[in-house]
């Protein structure tokens, strides 16, 4: 929120920059290169924090009460007791005299002290907590803003902190430097001013991308004098959040040069494989595309906070109703009795003498007085306690060693203290993929060569073994180029390589030659590969470790070393990868023999094989299916011998296609098709996109907790689906995924409606016999009956996969409802090829239309907008910078810790907060309503039953510690059982522990308790006399008896709510009761001159007091004990059953599952279980390599014409073609594999309700191969049938 006095800057239409001209650029007031994720500064903290705090209705409510208490006709104010807190709050010394002269005792005996102190306390505690949170943000901001860069100043390169960099400055970067701002590349150390960047912090991808400077600026080289004299003017688009697009132009010496995204380095990128680079700042600070994608810091409140705001309104209406009753009764009493009784109780001087007007005036004043007296139904100490409890919950998260990642010395961190209980109510998780679910590290695991599979470890007898820490690894020590971190477990493959097996050599030679990897030799002689995708890097590294080392390349040659012997191949042509071809090839020549090496998706390669490979294809296909069972990403490899004549004819066609202006890409693809035929199959590779440790188990367990997980990733569809199966988001028990990939609004709508119709038909068809429920929840977010139906899962769950371009249409207002309906009926949703903004829009869609709590988790800057949009944002402090962590509410170092964060800390926080609130409202209604019953015995005069100091200290000292201990330490089951029984999390999702029904029951219980607390002592003492016949039923004694009974009863009631007892619990419960009696005896003694002096000794010395107290507490506590024993014994919850198991301390044996699953009658998926092929998801370095632009040897040649990277300009990574049997890389879900060329239906058309027999057979197979989660729910510790929530395997 901008200050009202600040001059609003008009929106930018275009940006004009003069290089090295700070004075000219300053007139536009462009943003400085400083980022701010904090909410406050020194000047805005007090007003902004108070504004936010008074958005909480309770705070505004108590401020209004304080104002009422300062009105002399309504309240009395003890000058000495009031001046101290007022001076403390307002710091105005002159108020004392005005208060002393003006505020006189009139009606109420309560002082404003009862409201001022708690109000100031809650404001100060909340402000201090917010300040601590914001100080952490300031420190994080300072860490980033104080990074250093080398900036050109007055012709010299000087070191400057990032926050001092301005638009128009020239910055010098060196290898591995972070880019400080959005820069236009001027010159680099590489040939033709190329540079390589890693954009992991922007899009999560660790593969390198290429940028190139204009030819006219590349001449500046590393000459500081030329840089200082460079005076170009740059005109560009205004700041925006489009990461993949930039439009601008540069004017230099009356010439205009076009600028696009290939000339721009964005903040957050890292310079790689480039010695140095110069760039001029275009956008800085908050105007950078990185920060524009970050969104604004929003003030987040929990659902309990929002519900509390509504409750405050309801309670206030209840309070007004009670006050109106007292007001009417007071008016009647004053008119009937009080007017004629003024000799004993005279009216105040300002009250009219007439009966009617006088009674009315007194009644109106009494209304306001009762507002003050009965306001403790919602004491402000409630919010003080809530803030303390939340702070403690945050510390538990920070101190949890089970979420500490020792490899990086990174603990979990609660970056906010206001959202903890909401961690126990998450229903939708939106997760990034790369770096969040995966490590973005590829490893070569298995392969199939000439019909034989390699990679499975076996023992000496040839029996397969599971890979573990003790499994022996292949020894590559004989290879000087072997990588230390490369692991392979099948010694036989290395043996056949050493034996010179021809087909095996052809396999690894293909991997070593067919790629676009760039080699880099460090000063220490270490060979490192820079790959366009980690997939390619893994395959080339595998060839290297098996003795086929890719050493170097030039525009026309590739050099490899095979078992110590150098082989140089002439590189004739690279047939690069794109999303339509789904393959790449290289044509090389050696020893006058021309050969084509090709790798690509299995179905693409199989369609182009020679007929003689039919048998080998069948064997390889079998191996591919085995690899896919393990979730590996597969590629097929093939070769072809080409004659000189055939190549010469083809080369002419290739040259013509590559030089055409129109439809160049299509023409090239047609030419590539001609030569990539009659291939000879070599084998298949299988690499693993390594998931983070524990990801499959975490997702499986969260799914059992009825949490829906949506994956929002920028990766291609095949990769996303493959990872979905690997991490158990997609399972073989599910029906075939719905694929939404249309490219027009009408087609997207048709696909969504078709899918939604099929899901509804399937579910409605099963409802005639069964209720679709899962405990107390259904997957579409609606609340279902608490009764568990053991036949709940009649059919397989559904999954939805939607591409980014289709999602753009699905998020439009006319389709968003349809999309959401379908997505919420699916167990898993995967959105691939999505932009950062689309991620945020998907989260916002669910937030707006579903009454549920959302969580977003990611590790890169492209996830920031999603993290800020969700109710809870979690940043993973991984390898991709700190942007996600800086924007998050919580940070963890591994995805697997999310399970503990939600199922343990989140559940405990929600449980504790609900218990706390339920008990707090009970004890305060029991306390406050005693005043209401007393009103019927005091002529509705607003006389209080209790001592005013008791009213002030009741919630602060007498009953505060037990409930704080309950709210901070209580746990119904331990952390291990919280994880083992994920269904324990379901009550939080359904918000069953604190809702309107629970609150109403607390009010009713408090109402009944107040009746018992008041009328039993009243009956016992109303006619009581001492031994001398003197009446003992005075107000002070009666109030003391009721107060003592109240303190004992509510503390015993708190003890009943405690599930986790320690010595500390005993100390605070019994200590609070003892403290009350000790304080009363001391405070009412003769040592302290007070109105109640001697009352305590008189009351507590009377045996009738103790008998009355025992009788009242028994009537209050015993029925609750009986009711809870009955509920636990007859109708136990899952929590009760697990707690019983925990107490019994029996061995955790596996019993039979309570849930009986039926086979699906819906047609099972006939999809191939083939994993997505491993390959770069965008065009590689093919044209760059063959052009020689990145080769230093060729760069020395004189180039007379400008060089343009046409391949980089025409990348179409986001384009996903329409599916067809001949172009789809991933086998079509829902179809069985057939020979190449056979017609198969698309996923959208093939789903139907036929073939029940095939469905059943497939189901049985799927059920055998289904992976089990590591945290498998245990059977019930009580007899079957006694349950509310049923565990489900």
TrEMBL record:
- Any keyword Cell inner membrane? no
Q: What membrane topology does this protein have?
A: Multi-pass membrane protein
EC id: 7.6.2.1
Write down the required cofactor(s): Mg(2+)
Q: What class of enzyme is it?
A: translocase
Give all residue intervals belonging to the P-type ATPase N-terminal domain.
17-83
UniProt domain P-type ATPase C-terminal: residue ranges: 885-1133
Catalytic activity entry: ATP + H2O + phospholipidSide 1 = ADP + phosphate + phospholipidSide 2
Q: What is its main location?
A: membrane
Active-site residues per Swiss-Prot or TrEMBL entry: 432
> Where does the chain bind ATP?
432-434, 536, 577, 599, 633, 713-715, 833, 839, 862-863
Q: Where is the composition biased (Low complexity)?
A: 1255-1267
Keyword terms of this UniProt record: ATP-binding, Lipid transport, Magnesium, Membrane, Metal-binding, Nucleotide-binding, Translocase, Transmembrane, Transmembrane helix, Transport
Polar residues bias (residue ranges) = 1231-1245
Q: Listed GO cellular component terms?
A: plasma membrane; trans-Golgi network
Domain P-type ATPase A, first and last residues per copy: 146-206
| GO biological processes | Golgi organization; phospholipid translocation
Subcellular localization is given as: Endomembrane system; Membrane
> Which family is annotated?
Belongs to the cation transport ATPase (P-type) (TC 3.A.3) family. Type IV subfamily.
Q: What is this protein called?
A: Phospholipid-transporting ATPase
Q: Which organism was this protein described from?
A: Littorina saxatilis
